[in-house]
Amino acid sequence: MVNRESSQPPRTDAKARLCAAARELMTERESMEFSLADIAARSGLNSALVKYHFGSKDGLLRAIVEEDAAQALGELGKLVARDIPASAKMRAHIAGIINTYFRHPYLNRLLHQLLNERGADDAAEVTRIFVEPVARYQKMILDDGVAKGEFKPVDAAMFHFALGGACDQLFHARSSLRAVFGLDRIDDDMRKRYVAHVTELVMGGVERR
Amino acid sequence: MVNRESSQPPRTDAKARLCAAARELMTERESMEFSLADIAARSGLNSALVKYHFGSKDGLLRAIVEEDAAQALGELGKLVARDIPASAKMRAHIAGIINTYFRHPYLNRLLHQLLNERGADDAAEVTRIFVEPVARYQKMILDDGVAKGEFKPVDAAMFHFALGGACDQLFHARSSLRAVFGLDRIDDDMRKRYVAHVTELVMGGVERR
Predict the structure, then answer these.
(1) Vertex A161: Cα angle to B114 and A78 (nearest 5)
(2) pLDDT at res. B32
(3) Distance, in angstroms, between A78 CA and closest chain B CA?
């Protein structure tokens, strides 16, 4: 057998290339406004492949969220299972959320869109594959910290919202970043400052004094 | 002189009634999707008055944000000027943000739309009339707390984002509220729980131990 050159790439490769093209476009444009023609031009693939693999642009967006969620949840699951103090898990979790938004600049906007700006079906699906599992893992870390005497008892449901909002806001409220602080983009220094700040704030709130 | 009945209400009254109708519709529908005809039906006024007083539906929305911002900033300004401990100011400020979103259920969505989903002009305007003044007042409270020995030195810019996100998320992420916690609406008990939780979290993070 010899490897044959083919103009039609293998199925999995095409799917990955389409997702990669969409991620690039959303990151560059800081918006979700791209067409199937844009995807075709960027990926070098026929735009009909989007319909073939994902059904629609919305299907492509959902697939991207699923893939990113699976990766983030895989890391979070391993963290929760580690035999380390609960406070170390919480610190790593906080950095993990902020770093995920930093590494995937489109993800924050995409999650907000699917959860809050579209229909109930999209919101329920993203909640099922991402929000609910994250909330469960967070509760496990909090319970672990209380059991080990590290944390005060904390309302896990309320904590889920407060922490999510705190981590998310730097990325979601980019327009204020520019106007209030004269900063044009979130660079690595700002990422580190934000991780340190949110960690200090939240750990001060949950750890026993 | 006798009071004359008139089918044309005075100018200020018409403006207030149009704003009130828009607030009601946005609250009931949990969305900003309403037409000038809806406003006319709700207010009992001619839809042409929206164009006359506000230029457009967007102008009406900006006027609502301006009015709500002026009220919130008036309260915050008085709070900052009070001769009380900085920690009492911060606690009242946190409750104030959450209570404002609770009392004006449309406001969170409206701010997100104007800041993040529209053009740069809307974002700059809302930042100028609302976000910047709030950030300045927050810095005054933080500086006051450091000067009085109550607070640790805190990065005021980062704090602005973390606190804003924490207060905002319960309202912005309503879809998760339903799906994760089986709660259909934010009632007064939940408002109190959230105020208590965010206050505990944030004060633990800023107060000297």
Answers:
(1) 125
(2) 86
(3) 22
B82 touches B89 (CB < 8 A): yes
Least CA distance to B206: which residue of chain A?
Answer: A201
Q: A3: pLDDT confidence band, cut at 50, 70 and 90?
A: very low
Nearest by CB: B179 against A127, A194, A209:
A127
Q: In chain B, whose CA is at the least distance from the CA of A114?
A: B175
Q: What is the DSSP letter of B3?
A: P
Residue of B176, B183, B191 best to disrupt the A interface, most CBs of A under 10 A: B176
Based on the number of CB atoms within 10 Å of its own CB, is B41 exposed (0-12), middle (13-18) or buried (19 or more)? middle
* A7–chain B nearest CA distance, Å: 40
Residues from chain B that touch A165, judged by Cβ atoms under 8 A, are 164-170, 172-173
State mean pLDDT over A28-46. 91
In contact, A42 and A25? CB cutoff 8 Å = yes
A128-175 confidence digits (pLDDT tens): 999 999 999 999 999 999 999 999 999 999 999 999 999 999 888 877
With bands split at pLDDT 50, 70 and 90, how would you rate the model's confidence at A2? very low
* pLDDT for the residue numbered A11: 61
Q: Are B187 and B178 in contact (CB under 8 A)?
A: no
Q: Which residues contact A50 (CB under 8 A, 6 or more apart)?
A: A18, A36, A39, A40, A56, A57, A60
- Beta-ladder partners of B134: none
Residue B154 distance to chain A (closest CA, Å): 8
**Exposed e or buried b for every residue in B71-86, given b needs 16+ CB within 10 A?**
ebbeebeebbeeeeeb
Low-confidence ranges of chain B (pLDDT < 50): 1-6
CA distance A162 to chain B (A): 4
Q: Do B155 and A116 touch (CB under 8 A)?
A: no
Residue with tokens 């008892």: A153
Say if residues B54 and B95 touch (Cβ distance below 8 Å): no
- Smallest CA–CA distance from A109 into chain B, residue: B116
Q: For residue A35, how many other CB atoms are within 10 A of its CB?
A: 11
